[in-house]
Design goal:
Strand content: 5-15%
Number of strands: 7
Order of helices and strands: HEEEHHEHEEHHEHH
Number of helices: 8
Helix content: 25-40%
Shape: globular
Radius of gyration: 19 Å
Structural class: alpha+beta
Largest sheet: 4 strands, antiparallel
Strand order of the largest sheet: 1-2-3-4
């Protein structure tokens, strides 16, 4: 495990050194919510007025609940249509708090997550992209499909880890969830309806639920989404502790 630990530590050190050089080369920028974009070195720039942003395999969708924070989801074209959002033009946030709360609730039922701030998400997602395994510390990728009324009520749910890299063969720890299947993007990208999406989730081993409330990974209200998000906020806070992170990467210590 020492070899993997050294490798991951070097990734962190290299990224920190790069960010220090970039910070020295340019004046600091405000990180207030009203600032349209974060500093240029931010690998996940954020526009606080944007509703949707089209990415290669998904649409980054953001709602801004009146209770604070953001609800963030990465949705397929089928899901974007289900949310009654445009699949051909990017859109901005609403000026109505009620509209934001309603969209946030509907996004949560599709597997989106509440975050206290964009910065918290971006910082840890950047580390995951760099190859650091977060396992249970980071919310899973939750995929949801609602079959048409002709197929009965209920929903299909299939989830996997957000990790890009997991533990090596020498590590005795077992990931709490498998990583994204290799053929996932191609398969789910071909679904054109919720029924087809349901079929894909079922084929990949998804689980069927009668109600959103029956699935512990989904939130039926914004309040429930915040409760779930707060739990991950605490876990991610541990990963910000250098000593905890060292023990986690080394496989030592007790983690729960």
């Amino acid at each position: 495990m020492l070899t993997v630990f050294a490798f991951l530590s070097s990734l962190l050190l290299g990224r920190q050194q790069q960010q220090q050089l970039e910070t020295q080369a340019s004046p600091p920028l405000s990180l207030r919510p009203e600032t349209a974009m974060h500093r240029p070195s931010d690998p996940f720039p954020f526009n606080p007025n944007a509703r949707t942003e089209f990415l290669p395999h998904s649409c980054q969708t953001t709602a801004y609940p009146s209770s604070g924070g953001v609800v963030l989801g990465y949705f397929s074209a089928v899901e974007v249509a289900h949310l009654n959002l445009s699949r051909t033009h990017t859109t901005n946030r609403s000026s109505s708090p009620n509209d934001e709360d309603d969209l946030a609730r509907r996004m949560l039922s599709l597997g989106a997550h509440w975050w206290p701030s964009w910065d918290l998400y971006a910082r840890h997602q950047d580390r995951i992209t760099s190859g650091i395994p977060y396992d249970f510390h980071f919310p899973p990728v939750v995929n949801v499909a609602f079959p048409s009324d002709t197929r009965g009520a209920g929903l299909w749910v299939f989830k996997f880890s957000a990790d890009m890299q997991t533990f090596d063969a020498e590590d005795r720890r077992t990931p709490y969830l498998p990583r994204k299947p290799d053929d996932w993007d191609a398969s789910i990208g071909m679904a054109l309806t919720m029924d087809e999406r349901s079929d894909v989730l079922e084929r990949f081993g998804g689980r069927f639920y009668e109600r959103v409330e029956d699935c512990a990974d989904l939130a039926g209200t914004v309040k429930q989404g915040i409760v779930q998000g707060k739990r991950y906020e605490e876990l991610l806070g541990r990963m910000d502790d250098p000593n905890y992170l060292d023990e986690w990467l080394d496989g030592s210590g007790r983690h729960c």
